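batch_manifest entry 22 of 60
target: Vacuolar protein sorting-associated protein 41 homolog
source organism: Chinchilla lanigera
requested by: lab member K.T.
priority: normal
notes from requester: please return tokens only, no post-processing; we will run our own comparison against the previous entry in this batch. if the run fails, retry once and flag.
--- input ---
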Amino acid sequence: MAEAEEQETGSVEESTDESEEEESEEEPKLKYERLSNGVTEILQKDAASCMTVHDKFLALGTHYGKVYLLDVQGNITQKFDVSPVKINQISLDESGEHMGVCSEDGKVQVFGLYSGEEFHETFDCPIKIVAVHPHFVRSSCKQFVTGGKKLLLFERSWMNRWKSSVLHEGEGNIRSVKWRGHLIAWANNMGVKIFDITLKQRITNVPRDDVSLRPDMYPCSLCWKDSVTLIIGWGTSIKICSVKERHASEMRDLPSRYVEIVSQFETEFYISGLAPLCDQLVVLSYVKEVSEKTEREYCARPRLDIIQPLPETCEEISSDALTVRGFQENECRDYHLEYSEGESLFYIVSPRDVVVAKERDQDDHIDWLLEKKKYEEALMAAEISQRNIKRHKILDIGLAYINHLVERGEYDIAARKCQKILGKNAALWEYEVYKFKEIGQLKAISPYLPRGDPVLKPLIYEMILHEFLESDYEGFATLIREWPGDLYNNSVIVQAVRDHLKKDSQNKTLLKTLAELYTYDKNYGNALEIYLTLRHKDVFQLIHKHNLFSSIKDKIVLLMDFDSEKAVDMLLDNEDKISIKKVVEELEDRPELQHVYLHKLFKRDHHKGQRYHEKQISLYAEYDRPNLLPFLRDSTHCPLEKALEICQQRNFVEETVYLLSRMGNSRSALKMIMEELHDVDKAIEFAKEQDDGELWEDLILYSIDKPPFITGLLNNIGTHVDPILLIHRIKEGMEIPNLRDSLVKILQDYNLQILLREGCKKILVADSLSLLKKMHRTQMKGVLVDEENICESCLSPILPTDAAKPFSVVVFHCRHMFHKECLPVPSVNSAQYCNICSAKNRGPGSAILEMKK
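--- output ---
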């Protein structure tokens, strides 16, 4: 059960109840405050007896017979001295312009607050209730009821006189009445009745359940939820009644309307008042408890519950115990619950106190969350309802949340929340950074500092960098990498790093960070030197990005030592910035690196480094012999004599053989192959490449006394040299391995040559015959000669204009045409050829046709 403490301006009323209830984590549904100002003054000298509520004002009756009109803040706006004794009830019409008042001495007054009309009557018994027609302002609705021992209806006649009629009597005092539309509900000692004022008939009677309770001590509470739903609370019982229309077939002598009880249930305490709240009920309960010490009953604080009615039971939504003044002496009849339908305001009236309960808004919800230290939920609620909250600011809640997290030692979470809460407010950011500095937690907030919009003062970033520099080099390096260099004074940080390097000069993290700082400061030379010292992978990227080739001319050896592959590629890609000559000179003392560079240069272009080809011979011989022979083959600029000298000195046989053959000394080359390599296959291959008969002769002479060589020659010589030359020279009795197989192979090679020749001959004959037939067919075709053709010699038309004259024309197979007289006379026994085709060496074309006429 949640305890709701009602606060008054300047003071708080404390409970005399010594037992304290455990605080619930469930948020209350209503909030409370005392109606103060004029009400406080009234209740200091008098006691409240009744109250009624209008949307615009309040009307309060007291035990001394006074009626006060109050504004919603409790300020007195008007006062009426009605009676010297207790005011029992006050009634207002819906317009708030007419008021009815009844008192314990039998007085009844109905008057206009803003007009002169008035009804005044004194009865011979106490009048407990009065109710004016809800639309009393209308001339047709000038009606009101009063209740003492009987219920009287007063109506104004057409002559402006008031006449009365008895609606009910004989069941004890009328103690409660509620008028809604054309229905009047009242309660007497026996139960609750409903009367239809338009039909002038009573609809129903709802008997009370617990007849053991005194009706004057535990009065009935009535309220209309709407024009057809009546809620009855009496003792501990609640009934919800619905007025319904009776079907015409069921009328007979019954009223046209009837009442159905749609819900009925019991409560834990005695009911002092009821009010609707949407589809729920607000119940004011009178509570009696038994003291554990004295075992005697005493009056406890009243409760205000919100319940959800069900057909036969109810569900409690919230329950608050109210500390009203003087609750220890109050009885159930001393409490009243009035409500304002328009604003969902509930007034708890007791003799010494008036408490206002209202539905909690979003501000109240945030208040409760903050009170329970649920800051994250409060922040979320404020963000969702930022248009509706009036008393809270999202920023204030966020700052309180950050402070709360810091107090709990959750520094990382607090720092992370700063991003969302502080946003772009640079001043707040700086304030929070100093707070984190005071508690020694600058490292916690560093990852979340803004770096663009907004930008804080450089001092803030420098302060954090110094903090890391003192205790965490890796964290310092990370911040330098992540933060833009314009956030802080670069020279200040550079000097701080230098100071630390004096203590630890070989610290790679600090050196690398210093290089990055130099880079931000555009001091690329110093940065490059550090990167090279550290052999850092970003050195080449730095050179390319900032075009530092002029700075590395004297650092080529360092670059090559670090990564020769990348260094050479970079140098060759930028020959226009660092010349080949400069690189070779810088690497003069490091021939192995010089070779790497020149080798890569030669691979890219055989001619660019031609001036260094002579030097490269020695470099290849020393550091890379496998690539020496390919170099000698591809280079056209290396001096062969120098190369031969180096290769002979180092006894490089293959390279020497190549050089000898290239210099034209093939016989010496062959001799070296045979004597040094003893490789007959290589010797044969070499002889084949040179295609020189003398080489074959030398090879045969050298091999004639070496059976293995003879075998190799027999297997390979057949297609280049006549094998008989070799066979005739073999000494009788010499044992030659695989001689039979070699001879068989010679014969097979010979047969294969014969077959190839015969095959070629057949193909040649067939092709010749085919072409001869084609030429014959072509030459047998006729040739068209007409007026458009001309003599290729005199260029005049080939046919005469006068067809009667005799003419002679010669036409060749090449389609050239001549007048016979334009051709030279051929010699005896020689063929005649086309002059044009013969001159162009296109082959002869003999005359195919001679036309005469």
